[in-house]
Design a protein that fits this description.
Chain lengths: 114, 109
């Protein structure tokens, strides 16, 4: 998993509940990303960070929040879970700033909202 | 708008060759990535192209034509373990990855 650890691996939430998806990396990379992947769809960028204290919105940020207080951790928060947020969530890191650096993914969190 | 198109599903025979096509329309272009994703797992990096031409890596090769907005992934000597989804992703002018929906490759004995 390229040094990217995501927890939990699976979770079922009720509508309106909140939770935090954890993402931790142990390789001191500045660039980190959160994606969601729905069945039959491409990965959609939720939020990203280029370093501690810096975060920015991606393509589908509504309903989510992030923070980056340390280089290692990039948690994703769902405040009021909705069925539309049922998805697989992947955290990714990028080893460097150069555009040819590939992103490497954690194992994912499978989230169901019922 | 930005768009990546690739076939939804392809079937091939073990030992054969298969070509998975990808066309892209993005605001600016800074390269194209191919990833492999086995069912229930995370995507893993296969290749990166930014200049026109063919990049070869063992059984896998990737081709890019910037003028045509087109790439393909070529898999040779197919093995059963190559059964997976193959994701095409283009890097736009903001250095954000725009992802295709993936091509599910089914390998038959």
């Amino acid at each position: 998993n390229a040094g990217v650890t995501q927890t939990p691996k699976f979770r079922i939430l009720k509508i309106g509940q909140s939770m935090t998806l954890q993402c931790t990396q142990d390789m001191n990379h500045n660039y980190m990303y959160w994606y969601r992947q729905d069945p039959g769809m491409g990965l959609k960028l939720i939020y990203y960070s280029v370093g501690a204290g810096i975060t920015d919105k991606g393509e589908v940020p509504n309903g989510y929040n992030v923070s980056r207080s340390t280089t290692e951790d990039f948690p994703l928060r769902l405040e009021l879970a909705a069925p539309s947020q049922t998805s697989v969530y992947f955290c990714a890191i990028q080893p460097g700033q150069d555009s040819n650096q590939p992103q490497h993914f954690g194992d994912g969190t499978r989230l169901s909202i019922l | 708008g930005q768009n990546i198109d690739q076939p939804t599903e392809m079937t091939a025979t073990e030992g054969a060759i298969v070509q998975i096509n990808c066309t892209y329309q993005t605001s600016g272009f800074n390269g194209l990535f191919w990833y492999q994703q086995h069912a229930g797992e995370a995507p893993t990096f296969l290749s990166y192209n930014v200049l026109d031409g063919l990049e070869e890596k063992g059984r896998f090769s990737s081709f890019l034509s910037r003028s045509k907005g087109y790439s393909y992934l070529l898999l040779k000597e197919l093995q059963m373990k190559d059964s997976a989804s193959y994701l095409c992703a283009a890097l736009d002018s903001n250095y954000q990855l725009i992802w295709g929906a993936g091509t599910k490759l089914i390998i038959k004995p």
